[in-house]
């Protein structure tokens, strides 16, 4: 259709303050054409294609998601200038190449903006000069033809057009807040005018996109068509506008969807209250509301300027840096050196078996059937099997109740699940996930059976959270296909999947499981084999530090409060209650056996267990629980703490200098034997008093710096390939606040020297638990960040 002109070689304006910018290098012309080198440097472009019908089709091209780099944005402006200049162009259609409109502003450019390494255009250039004064104010109408996705800046470009045609499945949204910023190309002003203030705030504050069909209902999209008809319909629509057959709407000045001032004020008030309650540590959602409000009160142009200023400030904030780090770290977990770069293609997994229908097994089976995998659920008897099947059913039904699944879809999904009491039906499965209790000999027997019944290509995965996989597979000769698939409870909801490889697991099997992980919508992190892997190893010192503090005098509820305020979903004691003391103690035993030198052996939990307290399930743990599972502090807990103190020799007498003797002998509680501590050291009254009066900052550091210390060990041992994988593991497995960037990213914000000094100081008082590891000591001595790659780590992979 028509003549095609790519824009790489045509510059009409240079909006940048410094024309010799990094960006301009990619657009500069050498003898009328960009050199090959310069072309290769360009990060995306637009093309313009003028048809015989007089419609200029401008296509955004920047794979994989047509993000809006500065190159693309400048090229968009140039394409527009050309289309507006040319007499043979009557109207304009903007679209994205290969079925994707645009994934928004190029997030990889944020770093350059933050450090000032990329020259930015003059203030307000994109949102005002380009989108408002060129696109929206043009004397030729524009229609956005949206397929795939129009997110962030992508949707903002589309909203500056005079109409939007979309496919029913396209995703439209302004997810900027999940990156710690607000929309910066006019979205805060145009979205409320297209869909109303309430809906616009909801879309921005939750960062959730809407599908084309919903967008149509909301008025964000003017017409829905199939992908095949998208561009032709948009062309017709644009020409209809030229001929006055369809309205030509500038979204920025629309007022019909706006509420009255009084109503708007109420909506803003409600929004702010909700933000303060749900995200008390975050500023940018409040800024977003302020910016929308400015536009409503002072007019959209004032709103655009306020948006620009706020965006510039937020993009440089620590929150934005942390969230952008998390964005890329999450996508980086599937890039595993010497595994995903070998050119291996994932094999097709047609059928999966899950062994064990308990909480974990049924959750895993739910996650699998939800992604259309046929699943066999195996149990040891009819009763357990039925209970397992019922759990999966209940998981799915809860989705129906919440309106997330139709009854018809429920029936189809549930029919993918079959029960089994033996291994006969395992003869054609491609993957088995064992999810039985943490019992080594039971697991060994199961894996030996699996080797007999499953086909030789079948992936043999274990959901163990702590047990060494070499031990699990020791009675087989299938070590190359044994792998850990460690889900987090509830498995159908929690987003993380720890993929544990031994030094014998084949790369093909890892690639296969990564693919299954992606299909069941998990974020997989590949880790090496050791007790507790990455997440539980980091979790362990978290609870331990909390117990140590409590035994030394800090109020347990104060600890939970401080930790929640820091941004964790719950404090360590509330978490132990939720997980249950049984699981907590079983896990602790693994650590005591494997890392005795850095285990703090508290008796608080075993003493409580002795009194039939086991956490939330018994309605009594560190908290008391009512019928609605609401937790309230229990003054009785004090007595267990005091008893534990007397056992461990920790005294609270302020006048005397006490010796912390440690335990001698062993104490048997139920089936649990806590081996006596060999560690003995001193602590002073002064320290007790300090601990009783710790500031929130101290509490946070005494809880999380041991976690950092363990994360450093995990990294140094090669259990995690990249520090960023530990960031994702901490955010998705532990609930570490993403806006702090994950455990290693946060640690680097404090500095290795500072962390080392703090831990060293506490270790002198409290012993081995706080002792900084060699890796931390080395990084501190070198003044190096903890997240810098480990060059010669003894990789266990
Ligand atoms: C001024 C403006 O208001 C500011 C903005 O526009 S900020 C940007 C707003 N946009 C967003 O937040 C969207 C972010 N992207 C996403 O949510 C998802 O990537 C997506 C829904 C677009 C695609 O998801 P999916 O198909 O699962 O692919 P996903 O693996 O996430 O991304 C594919 C690749 O595109 C990259 N990518 C996605 N969106 C990008 C963006 N906006 N900028 C740069 N790269 C992006 C990813 O990093 C990934 O790269 P990789 O293959 O090298 O790892």
TrEMBL record:
Domain named 3-hydroxyacyl-CoA dehydrogenase C-terminal: residues: 532-625
Please indicate if the UniProt record lists Electron transport as a keyword.
Answer: no
Which GO biological-process labels does this protein carry?
fatty acid beta-oxidation
| Localization | Peroxisome
Give the 3-hydroxyacyl-CoA dehydrogenase NAD binding domain ranges.
351-529
Reaction(s) catalysed by this chain's protein: (3S)-3-hydroxybutanoyl-CoA = (3R)-3-hydroxybutanoyl-CoA; a (3S)-3-hydroxyacyl-CoA = a (2E)-enoyl-CoA + H2O; a (3E)-enoyl-CoA = a 4-saturated (2E)-enoyl-CoA; a 4-saturated-(3S)-3-hydroxyacyl-CoA = a (3E)-enoyl-CoA + H2O
| Cell membrane in keyword set | no
Q: Name one GO molecular function term.
A: 3-hydroxybutyryl-CoA epimerase activity
Top-level taxon of the source organism: Eukaryota
Q: InterPro entries given for it? A: 3-OHacyl-CoA_DH_CS, 3-OHacyl-CoA_DH_NAD-bd, 3HC_DH_C, 6-PGluconate_DH-like_C_sf, ClpP/crotonase-like_dom_sf, Enoyl-CoA_hyd/isom_CS, Enoyl-CoA_hydra/iso, NAD(P)-bd_dom_sf
Where does this protein act, in terms of pathway? Lipid metabolism; fatty acid beta-oxidation
Keywords in UniProt for this one? Fatty acid metabolism, Isomerase, Lipid metabolism, Lyase, Multifunctional enzyme, NAD, Oxidoreductase, Peroxisome
> What are the record's GO terms for cellular component?
peroxisome
**PROSITE patterns (UniProt xref):** 3HCDH, ENOYL_COA_HYDRATASE
Q: Which family does it belong to?
A: Belongs to the enoyl-CoA hydratase/isomerase family. In the N-terminal section; belongs to the enoyl-CoA hydratase/isomerase family.
Q: What name does the UniProt record give this protein?
A: 3-hydroxyacyl-CoA dehydrogenase
Species source reads Linum tenue
Q: Source organism lineage?
A: Eukaryota, Viridiplantae, Streptophyta, Embryophyta, Tracheophyta
